[in-house]
Amino acid sequence: MNHTFQAPSALLEDGWHDAVTIAVNSDGWIESVDVDNDSPADHLLNGPVIPGIPNIHSHAHQRAMAGLAEKASGNRDSFWSWREAMYRTVETLDPDNLYDIARQLYLEMLRAGYTSVAEFQYLHHDINGAAYQQPAEMTLACLQAARDVGIGFTALPVLYAYSGFGSKPAESAQRRFINNHDTYMRIVGDIHKACRSSADFADNCSLGIAPHSLRAVDEQLLSDTLASCADIAQVVHIHIAEQVREVEESMAFSSQRPVEWLLDKFDVNERWCLVHATHTNTTEIEAIARSSAVVGLCPTTEANLGDGFFDLPTFMANNGRFAIGSDSQISISPVEELRWLEYGQRLVHQLRNVSASDDSPHTGQTLLNHALVGGRQASGRDTGAITVGKRADFIVLDNNHPRLAGRSDSNLIDSFIFSGNDTLVTDVFVGGRQVISNGHHHEEADITSRYQRTITNLGH
Ligand SMILES: [Zn+2]
User: Fold this and answer.
1) Catalytic residue among 307, 311, 327, 393
2) Which domains does the chain have, with CATH numbers?
């Protein structure tokens, strides 16, 4: 059945409009958008409407340890010591635990205004490192959680074969991650089938592949896997140049920096999402921008892990594309990601409104536009815009909140991003289906109590 939604104002591709009517078909696709239209609709939306924000980088299981790696070990903590703590946390997770964690996490994402998540899942095997009877079990647990909560989903099963450059054998702590080309292809095939076969979710689901990093694959494996997945994977995501040590190891191995090596060896194009790309020089930044790949920026995680700063001004000056992700789940807030992205640059450059330009002078609005357009590309889903032919993924902001008093259009988005921390998202729709009403999900009590029980039982 078709539905119509009437919004007092909405952010469309050409900017803000008043009295907007959105018609959505029974499969959740936008069929028409009319402006200055007061004719009656099935659903009245009570505040300004903006497209839902794609979250393009998530490791669901890391939600379980958010806040538990903030105690100093006394030994100059870094990304690498955090990684050891994370490995210890994930050792005992099984598919049921992961489902409970992912369901709570995705619920929190919806409440914050994310309407889709790209799940970069590298836990594949059981706690001894043996494949489950259904080898894709762990990613399928995330897919099921997304489907049950109602968030759009890009499955990114991770290809992880080695522990370092030069095909270095995997460590014992990585035993749950490890696959070769053939075992990986079985996982990808099963997820592809699961995405396509769920009649009520297929349009909300897409599939990509995720070589974990250049540490975890070699040239031959990456090349073979890209060829094998060419017809079924919409996107390719990879962690790259997150840490200085990774750049040093890459230089020692190939005399090239990670981004330099990847762009030299592979046809990196608009299907690719380079996650972090923190330690990149100007030549690399310009080359990524030319490739049309999206850079997946995760500012709260990059800050939490002490990664460093991406050269956003140079990238934006070269029309680079970026999107945002919650990554380690230290924060589940697109507002916080976008705000920290800008604040990091302000602190580095001792300037204000670094992300804005003469053509796009509103900082919050500019950042949001990038997260929507880049997010659509990197998630491999037709989302991120309220326009004909896209998914009906949109969110309603709280018009009665004091923070938005007297605000409209781009000032409203700037205030949404920069003026406070309590959520301004009241209602959320994914594929035309309402999943959050007045800030809550209809199964929230059950989802949250199961999560609390699971976390308590894990006893971290
Ligand atoms: Zn990550």
Assistant:
1) 327
2) 3-50+397-446 (2.30.40.10), 52-379 (3.20.20.140)
